[in-house]
What does this fold into?
Amino acid sequence: MGHRGRDPLLFTRRDFGMLALAGLPLSLAFAKINSKFKGVQIGAITYSFRTMPNPEDIIKAYVTIGLGEMELMSGDAEKLAGAPIPITGGRGGGRGTMTPEEQAAADARAAELRKWRMSATAATFKPVKKKIEDAGIQLRILCYNMNVKNTKDDEIEYAFMMAKALGVKAISTSTQVSMAKRTAPFADKHKIPLAFHGHDNTKDPDEVSSPETFAAITALSKYHAINLDIGHFTAANFDPVPFIQQHHDRITHLHLKDRKKDHGANVPWGQGDTPIKQVLQLLRDKKYDMPGNIEFEYQGDPMVEIPKCVQYAREALNA
It folds into this structure.
């Protein structure tokens, strides 16, 4: 059931503002948001709203657009939980342009944030889970990115603790193939799927990008899984449709975007080479239980463009 029986795509910023002025809490103003079309769950990763620094506004954006499923970036989860906000970039706009004083402040904040993370408990994130679910949104995936060069083992443990506290079904991560050897024991211990996100850099054997790299990762743990980004997979000149058919039991969820082949650009849906329509119809026809999460990366306002993506999905599914 959507917002009081109304199509959530027709729910405008003005409507939301009127509810806010009325002082209505979201839990009372909204029922559970329904963005499952013909059995296919359409959601989004909060990265799609990265132009919004306040994750409270991102939650409101999901409600406004009518997105009923969320893949929550760990940084957004931490902001909602009251973590110290890291300092990134100097007056020139990049980390390399920081003055010595700015760099010292950034380093001090990073140390403060690490201390906060290592002292966090399940109770730290329970209010985050409640806030999202009270808005009518299903919190299904936590995105916690790792890097083989600087992610410590206690930070991997922290990721699984956060995932359990948030009650998600899986963790997604953008990382390297070689990181899988380190994450396997943690995934086995906690019995939570850890889904590796693929990109299109097929030249580097340590980058997750190809069927072979996904096979190497999933061979190391039965809890290692796949977060297939069908746009990147297409840009790397692979076909996501037969890959999904063959490996659907190891795919936790998809990232939906349109890209050109041969490592081409991100473009509005329908203008690239990614078979978005065929993928969505495959999920519908085979009844695969994997959300299709919009990862908005082409130019434009997410509050204008993401509703277009939702409508594209609805039309592709004849919903």
The two ends are 15 Å apart (CA to CA).
